[in-house]
Amino acid sequence: MASATGTEKFLAQGPVAFARTHPIVPDGGLALNDADVAEHFPGEKRHEIKVPHRLRMATITKNHNATSDKNLAYLLTHQRYRPGHPIAADSFLTWYLPWNPGGGQVNMSIPIDPVLGPEGGPENVNPPFFFTAELTGCSVFVRGDPRAPEIFHAGAQNPSWQGSAGTHWRTLFAKSRPLTFEQDRFVEVNKYDYIGGDVLGARYTPPLVKAYVERIEAEEKLRDANCEILGFAGFGCVFGHRDTIGHWAFYLQENVRIFYRRPATPKPYACANRALRLSQIYPHRAVVATNDAPKPLPFP
Predict the structure, then answer these.
(1) Which residue of 46, 101, 203, 240 could cross-link 157, Cys pair, CB 3.0 to 4.6 Å?
(2) Whole domain around residue 231: which residue ranges?
(3) Is 274 part of any domain?
């Protein structure tokens, strides 16, 4: 019997149980242009994704390429959902929020009411899943009513400002929703929550990532004295799930990407991705699961 696909595992286990141990990498595959987003505040890089582009058909596939930086991660790839067309095999519908590599903030709201359904079905599509693109330095904000939340994804490929990125995106978010800081429910995730960065000129690595890499390096040396850890990088995944009474909860999955080499490694390095911690971030914060014990690095 064939093993279950990543999509089948995700749907059978549910997103929270799946994300406890499966590092998820949503791709960025939606180019932002005038057809996708409306720039409400020209010059300030505040965009809202247009309604037809919020829904995507997604597939989850495990990467089994030792020399890929996404080896052993579960890749979420997606394409535009077109009302009137059936959902592709081994796919599911999800709300999806991209980022803008050109810099800025992109936001979307998830409606309470259903939107146009697939071919032959009633107009009752309102999938209980949400993903934003892979986080490698961006900030994410979630605000509003848990029945109809609004999500913001802020980032830039080549930052043009001086100072803290977190402060820059927080300021942009405050401009977009000026009363939120005073009277609304909201949460922020920024790079210090999952990847780290520079603090007062010194490199900051999240303690969870640092401790995991130090422990796996020590354990690998016992298994293979010639194993060399070449580097590592934290990354994050923010996803949401709606419960049976219509309330959304959002989660941050903290992951690490470890680059290493053994004498028999065929390319300059091998890579393994690992899920470290899963936390609910909205409407309240709580740690769901932590994977303290490192899984051995595979032999390429």
Answers:
(1) 101
(2) 6-290
(3) yes
Strands (E), 44-145: 46-49, 55-62, 74-80, 92-97, 104-109, 129-132, 139-143
Considering the domain boundaries, does residue 224 fall inside one? yes
Is residue 296 domain-resident? no
Residues whose CB is less than 8 angstroms from the CB of residue 77 and which lie 6 or more positions away in sequence, other chains included? 27, 29, 58, 59, 61
Distance CA 299, CA 264 (A): 9
Is the pTM here over 0.90, yes or no?
Answer: yes
194: in domain: yes
Are 287 and 276 a contacting pair, CB within 8 Å?
no
pLDDT of 123: 65
Each residue of 63-111: pLDDT tens digit? Answer: 999 999 999 999 999 988 888 788 888 999 999 999 888 788 999 999 9
CA pair distance 79, 65, nearest whole angstrom:
23
CA distance 243 to 237: 19
C-alpha dihedral, 173 to 178 to 184 to 186, nearest 10°: 10
Cβ(166)–Cβ(139) below 8 Å: yes
Q: d(Cα 174, Cα 171) in Å, to the nearest integer?
A: 5
What total of structural domains would you count in the chain?
Answer: 1
For residue 24, the surrounding DSSP H or E stretch is strand 24-26
Q: Which residues contact 200 (CB under 8 A, 6 or more apart)?
A: none
